[in-house]
Amino acid sequence: MALFAVPNIIQDLIPAAASESINPWTWNLNLNASGLYEYLPTMHALSKFALLGACAVQSVMGLPEPVESREANLLKRNVDDWINRETPIAWQKLLCNIGPDGCAVRNQGVPAGVVVASPSRSDPDYFYTWTRDAALVYKGLADAFRRNYTEGLHTQLKNFVSSQAKLQGVGNPAGGLNDGQGLGEPKFMVDLKEFTGEWGRPQRDGPPLRAIALIRYAKWLVENGHKAVWPTIENDLKYSAQYWNQTGFDLWEEVPGSSFFTIASTHRALVEGAQLGAVLGKPTRAYTAVAPQVLCFQQSFWNAREGFVVSNINGGEWRRGRDANSILASIHNFDPSAGCDANTFQPCSDRALSNHKVVVDSFRSIYNINRGIAQNKAVAVGRYSEDIFYNGNPWFLATFAAAEQLYDALLVWKAQGSIAITQTSLPFFRDHVSGATVGTHAAGSATYNQIVSAITAYADGFIEVASKYAHSNGAMNEQIDRNTGQPIAAPDLTWSYSAFLTATARRDGYIPTGWGAGQATALPAGQCQKFEVAGNYNLPPTPVFPSNLTPAANAPVEQITAVPTGCTNPEKVFVTFNERASTSWGQVIKVVGNVPELGSWDVNKAVPLSASKYTSGDPLWSITLPIQAGSSVQYKYIRITNGVAGVSWEGGDNRAFSVPGATCDVQNRWDNWR
C-alpha cells in the first residue's frame, strides 16, 4: 500500500507503466532523457550494505578512501535518499494548499489558483493568501512547468493568472487600483475578499514578485503563439516603477523601511518586464528608465566593512541587518547570464558569498541545536538573529535557501570553468579550503577541485539539517524549535515545500531560463536618482485561453532574450511634476488635470506625488508621468488628508502647458503650492 495518495498533477508526471501503487519512500521522481518525469527505485538497504562492504574491502586492500571524501559520499547518499522520499511528498503537500481542489483547502471557499499559506487556523492563523507567498510558489511552478510540460501544471498556472487578475481589483486598506496603491496590500482572505485587520502595510514586494511569476508563464505562452497575461503584469510593473523608492514593510512584515529583498525583486521585475513587453510591442520606457536607478539604490545596502548586506535600511535600525532576506534575494534573482556579477547580487558573486557566510554564522551560536557544529559545516538558518517571533527559531525555507545559493554558485562555476576569489569572498572560501588564495582558479586545478567538493558537501549539509528536523512522514512546518529541534509554528507551510523543491532542482542541475540580468548589470553614471514613473492602472480582463493550448512543435527553449534600451516610445513624453508643498504626517500631494493621464479631473484618479525627495528644508513632492505628445494640459495640485474626504485644492487658476512633440527629453514642471 502506498504511504499516501499521489495527487493527479503528480500522476501526470509519472509514466503509465506501473500498475502497483507508487511508494514515495522507495521510488524517486527523476527527469529522463526525453524530458519526462519517471519514478526510479532508490538504493535498497542490501545495496547499501554491499557498497559499504566494498569500501571496507578497499580499506583492507590498502586503498583507504580519504576521510573527507568518505564523509562527503556518505552525506550525499543520505541527502539523495531523503530527497528521493521527500520530493513527491513536497509536491503533494504544496498542491494540497492550492484551491479549489487541494486536499487541505477543498470545500473551504478557496477559488482556483489561490495559494493558502498554511492550513493552520490558529497559533498561528495562516489561513490567508499572501501575494508574496503565492508569487514565489507559482514562480517555482512556472519554472517546473517550463522544465516539463504537464496538463496539471498548466491548469494551475492558468488558474493563477485568472485569480490574480481578479485580486488586483479588490479594494483594501492599502488603497485601490485607481492609483495602484491597493496592489501593495500583502494578504487577503482565501475567498479573495479584503482583509481589514491591523497589519504591516503596504508591502511593496508583492507586485514585482507576482509580475515575475506571471512573466515566467507569459514567456512560454508567447513562444507557443498566445498572449494573454500582459494586462495583469502591466499593473504590477507600473506599481513597481512608481512606488519602488517609497518605504514599506519588509518580507517578514515587521519593519517599515527599505528592504533589500523588495528592491532586488523590483529590479528583476522591471528588467524582465521590459524584455517581455518589447516582444509584445508594449511601451517599456518607464521600466528601462527606472530599473538602473533601482539597481543603483540596491548597492546602498552593502556593508563593505563587515562584508554583508544590511537587509533593511531607512527603518529597523535596531537590527544588525544580517537577514535571510538577502539570501532569498540572491537565489530569486539567479541568472547565469550575469555570471558572478555583484551588482545584481548573483549567488556566486563575492558579495553574495561573503554575505552567505556572515548570515549563516550569525545563527551558529544562538541556537542550541547548532552548538558544537564545526565552522565548515551547515547549520539551521533563521530569519535574523534578533528574531522573537515564537522565540526566534530556524526556518525550513531559510535553511533551504542557504543550500540553494550554493547550488546556484556551483552551477555557474562549472559552466564558466573557473572560480574567482577576491578579498571580499576569501573568508567564505577559507572556511572550506584553508589554503584558498585570492585569484582565479581554473577547472582542474587543485584549488578548484577542492572548492567544488567542499561547497557541494556544504550545500548538501543544509538539506541534511532540514531532513533531520522534518516530521518522520515528510511534513514540514514553518519553523524548527531552536532548543529541541521539533518542527513548530504553522504546519505544512506552502513556502517550505516550494523552497525544498527549488533548492533540490538546482542540486539536480536544473537552471531556469534567464531574466536578462546579463544585460542589466551596469550602474548609471553619477549619483543614484530618485526617479519614479507613474502609470494608469486598469482592471485586467478575464483571461481567455485557447482550449488546445499545448507546446508548439519545435518551440525554442528560450526565445525572449533581448532587454530593450534607450527611448523606445517617444510619443509618450515624460513630464516630471515637481511641487513644493509643506505637509503634515499622513497628508499626500496629488496632481489632477484634463488629460486621461491626469485623471480627467476625477479626484479619485488623481496621481500621487512621491515624497522621496522631501526634507524639512525642501518640501519637494514629485512624480514623472508619460503624457501623449502634443497634448494641451491643464492641471492643479490637491492635498489629501485621510482619504478623498479630506481634499484641499490649491488656489488660483488652472496651471497649463503644452506637451512638445515626440521626444526622449524629460520635461519638468516646477511649481509651488498656492
Question: What labels describe this entry?
Answer:
674 residues, alpha+beta, 5-stranded antiparallel β-sheet, 3-stranded antiparallel β-sheet, 15 helices, 35% helix, globular
Q: How would you characterize the overall build of this protein?
A:
With 674 residues, this protein is α+β, with helices and mostly antiparallel strands. 35% of the residues lie in helices and 13% in strands. Strands 15, 16, 18, 19 and 20 form a five-stranded antiparallel beta sheet that branches. It has a three-stranded antiparallel beta sheet with strand order 5-6-9. The chain has a three-stranded mixed beta sheet with strand order 17-14-21, with no helix packed on it. The longest helix has 30 residues, at 67-96. Keywords: Carbohydrate metabolism, Glycoprotein, Glycosidase, Hydrolase, Polysaccharide degradation, Signal.
